[in-house]
């Protein structure tokens, strides 16, 4: 297997001379500002019988179509639930000029269908290059419900999975050929799959990959029932893999304080044997790290207290941390509390003691004037103001995050997963999701809403839609990995 460890000293950081991505994370911070972004838009569970589509959005403030959807690539099938996307090549192959970041991989979380989108021929109007049907995934891997996509230095593409073809939980990894996009088989060694699966991040310099857990697809596909966690139908562990042998070598049980560990991020510096993972239900952030013994451990470093409430489904409301990002210089960490409704920024210069330096509420379930009354809150003196746009209160909250390479702009969307949107923010199903830009103070910290940018996906041509994860054509903070 060829891996792009070698980087030509003549490389100047441009894609054409060296291959996709950037030599280092700090080089990525010097890249030109993003001008367009891609994001999947979902109609499943909205009552509108239309296929999902990939939207191309203009984010160039000098453009006459700034903050507008300029292209919609509709997929040919219904109810795929496009979710997280990834690239065919990234900075893991920076030293290979034969590689290009020109295909966006779009798995259907519910359908298990995988679309390969051509973004290279016409970046502003992508087209479908290939469709990998669910049967190919099922027959060749025994896996289903693909989630996270990462490109590998070998030129292959790896996608984590959450279930089996029957809807039971099953963690594993699909390998796609980087040229033909055919399913090659499983990445994990035979017999080393996990009960649950979700996200993953790899770091070859430490010969490691770490993966996370969600739950049974046949349960979460229809909403969330806390009793299912109590019954052991959702996960609370991290899994450590030997990157060379593809064997699972360690499981880290985070316990109830690590309930439903979702998104995981290593620090971008490939020398750093540590990173962070957000645990949704318990609303905690754990730092994971390599110990002096050579194995891996985790410790809780951020705790978002639940709020005692009336007028909600339960007497206590967790923050429900659903996404996390780390800036390219490994200085700031960001995450979203989807139920409480805030985005937070932490200074992680001291890796074990993150310090909150920014917080911004963008809706949520605890706003003033809503049905929920907060009776006890150890963090806030009063309930936050509701999100009002054009004189109308919007019932949604920050969910997916994407940070500009220079760290100055945080893109925020509000849809989590259509069935959970329908359960927790039913108004968003009728009104559509939203997209914001949050301006970031990268000197001392701080978050503020960019008043000049707003995308209201309730105004789409075929009716309100649920927009999810943002990707930049030039790479971003949650897709690029350095070797």
TrEMBL record:
It comes from the Eukaryota. It is an enzyme of class 1 (oxidoreductase). Pathway: Organosulfur degradation. Keywords: Selenium. Its EC number is 1.8.3.4. One of its GO terms (molecular function) is selenium binding. It catalyses: methanethiol + O2 + H2O = hydrogen sulfide + formaldehyde + H2O2 + H(+). Belongs to the selenium-binding protein family. This is Methanethiol oxidase.
